[in-house]
Amino acid sequence: MCGIVGYIGKKKAYPILIKGLHRLEYRGYDSAGVALINEQGQLNVYKAKGKVSELEAFCAEKDTCGNIGIAHTRWATHGEPNTVNAHPHYSESERLAIIHNGIIENYAVLKAGLMEQGYSFKSDTDTEVLVQLVEYTQVNRHVDLKTAVQLALQQVIGAYAIAILDKEHPDTLIAARKGSPLVVGIGEDEYFLASDATPIVEYTDKVIYIEDEEVVALKLKVESLKLKEVGEVKVESNIDITTINNVTKTPEIKRLELSLSQLEKGGYPHFMIKEIFEQPRTLTDSMRGRVNVRQDNIALSGFIDNKERFLNAKRIIITACGTSWHAGLIAMYAIEEFAQIPVEVEYSSEFRYRKPVINKDDVVIAISQSGETADTLAAIQLAKSKGAFIFSICNVVGASIPRISDSGCYTHVGPEIGVASTKAFTAQVVALTMLALCIGKEKGTMTEEQYLSIVRELGQIPDKIERVLGQNKRIADFAKTFTYAQNFIYLGRGYNFPVAMEGALKLKEISYIHAEGYPAAEMKHGPIALISQEMPVVVVAPHCGTYEKVVSNIQEIKARKGRVIAVVTEGDELVSKIADYIIEVPQTEECLTPLLTVIPLQLLAYHIAVVKGCDVDQPRNLAKSVTVE
Ligand code: AGP
Is the CB of 368 inside a 6 Å radius of any atom of ligand 1? Predict the structure, then answer.
């Protein structure tokens, strides 16, 4: 949830850390802080409530010198978002400073023990307990910082990615992880540290992904830190990775496939709208090398290499959260229709705690944009321990979920920075549809004609999305008339029922308007009581199997004076006559309609939020990557 960044090298650390925090701000933005050791050996900690820009303003008049530092952008778990609870946290003697992403579950027990030893606490955070524990261990066991960190972490239950500075050792930066991501970037006589590679990419493409329960010590010779902040100074450096039980590990250096331009807004006012407009290209990227329209074939290596597991599966369990869970629901329709395998779609947070029955011949599909969602990670760890085959659909290459999966498929849409997921969703649906088609074809549970028709149509989807995006201006215009609304209902059926839920989620997370997605036919079992002329109802009604039934639902809404915004297939005549606003999408295969119908809903939520003056890319209380339970 939080973002952490660190630097040690011959450059001035502060600008690198601040830039890194801006890149990581999507992970949390209720407070931020930085710690630096200056050339006089002072350990300065600066913190501010609010976004990183508040921290920058606060630091403008401060001493921000130093070639070693750590910084943090927070999404509060323990303790309200304020300056005291912001990271970094000092230890008792103010010799150490720590930043942390995760949750120390047994912090109360550890805190009580430290208080008995005379330690006092300034914040309400679990993180302060950890830094005090490290200092207590360092002092009482007479060990160096790395050993103190190892010993302290042996007592910790929970998740962490941490980085610690010790002003007595200004040549060393110590970090560790368990359950929360941590990447080390290797530059020329300098090291970078971050929750993901985005703060690192402009300095180096060489990275090491730190594994669970590993402790990394990044060192420079002390002389380098006494030299000027910039200049051609040769410094010796080294990196040492051990486990928390002091077993030496050999780091594997990987090359980053990420470009700086992918992290910029490219002329758009927000990342969200940029990412919505990127979808024709991102879906082309997702399908590249996989969907071969000329040969009428789909080649998905994660499936080809593990064909038997899918063909022998008695059941497929899909586990995910939020938008990714909605993509999973769409996959349930596709897999059951084409591959005839029963599918269960589980919220990861429920699945992991409800003692589910998991068999060795089950296939568990985890869906996660970030690949770091704590609940989804825990769900697949559970499934793996029961012998199920784990297949993951993720976007962030090298993240924890794909790393522990048996196989999978990356969506390859590039970094998604807007907190509201858009391009990741459509790519997840494409990946899952490709998988459903591969299984169906191989099992012989779908006709050749059906298979070919969908494969060909997949190739047309990017162009068809482009056509839907052409209505952006009109959607922006009528979005203005809905900013008064306190509530919205979204309705859809079949493949478009999850789209209704996704549309509602988009609206509530970025515009703070309450919205619910329902299967259209369920409306009469309760939600119809809410319909009045104040209630906008978005109905997803493309020409599919249940079209006529949905038209009847629209009649029912209109009879009660509800205002209907309908997403229909081009040329629709029935709904056009009764709905208040119409958005047309091109005709396509029923299983692919979500890829088109979701686009107007993304745009509608975006424009309503913009008109309301909401912070679209960083909505309140949210974070992009949910690495806590
Ligand atoms: C989507 O708009 C949300 N911000 C959120 O629901 C998200 O989809 C969810 O947290 C899951 O994230 P993941 O795909 O990275 O696992």
Answer: yes
